[in-house]
Hints:
Blueprint: H1 2-23, H2 31-52, H3 61-86, H4 90-99, H5 105-115, H6 120-146, H7 154-162, H8 165-178, H9 185-208, H10 219-243, H11 248-258, H12 265-272, H13 277-302
Helix pairs in contact: 1-5, 1-9, 1-13, 2-8, 2-9, 3-6, 3-10, 3-11, 4-6, 4-10, 4-13, 5-6, 5-9, 5-11, 6-7, 6-8, 6-11, 10-11, 10-13, 11-13, 12-13
Amino acid sequence: MSTVIYAIAPIFALIFVGFGLRRINFPGDGFWPVSERLTYYVLFPGLLVHGVAGRPIQADSLPLSGGVLLAVLVVALLARLVWPLFKLDGPAYTSLFQGAFRPNTYIALSVAAALLGPDWMTLSAVAMMSMIPAVNIVCVLTLSRHGSGGGGGVRDVLRELAKNPLILACLAGLSINLLGLSLPRMLNDLLDILGRAALPMGLLAAGAGLRFQMLDGCKRSLVASSVLHLFVLPVVAAGLVRLFGGDALAVQTAVIFTAIPVSVSSFILARQMGGDHQLMAQIITFQTMISVVTLPMMLIILT
Length: 303
């Protein structure tokens, strides 16, 4: 228990440092969007390629992959079923929907690095490769149908997935791994240096994206999305991975990638595609705050 808490505490402390820096306007409003793009398109891909290349693929990859993917689809269906209970309009529903399962990979990778041991990156790559395409497809299609701004169809979703730097980096690392290749020493060292900056920069950016606002009568949908994401999703994922024959490390990975709060990028997507971005901001902030308690609790209970 103490190991989990001590591993997670510095991660959330860094998130709140990012929030504090944004509040005092240091180093300036223009810094955070640029730093987030740098982290997303350069630092995190470097971390993933370096971490996955040359590491053996675990035998429990299939139970982990199938468990987290099916868990996302189950909770997406549950979010659709509870929609009528809250009498939300379409844009507000899309925010509840995203909040129910879209993961913050910055936090997930940081927790994985702290808890999963030497194979943390390979396990993380398996989880992300299983979740990210499905999450993006169902979220974009839902916003296309129920958001006020409309959006692209399946072709546009697939085009965006083909350009997703995290997916491309995972594929590159796994391909190098499966082909038995090794990175040139200079390139390997370069990716190592880039990767070291990825996690702290990602966590600071996550904190800078928090927005504290009045709840404005949306408490029920905010709580519903958080219960689905922070409690139901990890329980379903852990159960499915065990059902599929995954070992303890696979279960722990599944919980880490499903018990984390919703991604800050959900706010950007909601604003671009006509979702209720104000509700989305509240869900992001609320989940990030309470996951300080719920994430270690789920890890202790389920693993």
